[in-house]
């Protein structure tokens, strides 16, 4: 019975250690911008045109809340770093002492001094120590990632300076492989091209979340047993 309880406790412990907290990202609207007040729509009786509709002469970049913009995402991350360290230290110490003090230089005192030196050599204290230590290490890391895709976003808010806050998401489920993309950021109307698209490099407060679930993601993830060994390995 005790062995069963012990095995159960160990299993629960390793299971808890194997669970990793999922990283999350917030897609809330930035607070540094001041939203523009949207006027209430007016009913113009007897008129064929409305001030709330699309203008026949204004630039197409003058969009409204709810309009759709295409985002061309092309982001790359690369880093190369090398760290090295070397430490060394050495120490020597000597300590000695006799139990009798030395005497004068006359014949009688010389005989006593000789006996005292022999006694000190036999019963005296004398030792020496030396120590040395060294530590050296070197670490090198390198990674290169590229992410490219196209996603449509909706204008959720217009600011007083004319900028737009946009947010878009895409979710795919193909053969048990789930992919989710969420994008948000602030754009300028002047950066929108004639085909109603914008580059991700022109977006401020850009946030991109790309999450994968399924067999492919499981293969790319480090096994939980390996994570535990790396966490507790002291060397």
TrEMBL record:
One of its GO terms (molecular function) is cytoskeletal motor activity. The keyword Signal applies. One of its GO terms (biological process) is bacterial-type flagellum-dependent cell motility. PROSITE patterns: PROKAR_LIPOPROTEIN. It holds the Pfam family FlgH. InterPro entries: Flag_Lring. Keywords: Bacterial flagellum, Cell outer membrane, Cell projection, Cilium, Flagellum, Membrane, Signal. It is found in: Bacterial flagellum basal body; Cell outer membrane. GO terms for cellular component: bacterial-type flagellum basal body, distal rod, L ring; cell outer membrane. Assembles around the rod to form the L-ring and probably protects the motor/basal body from shearing forces during rotation. Belongs to the FlgH family. The basal body constitutes a major portion of the flagellar organelle and consists of four rings (L,P,S, and M) mounted on a central rod. This is Flagellar L-ring protein.
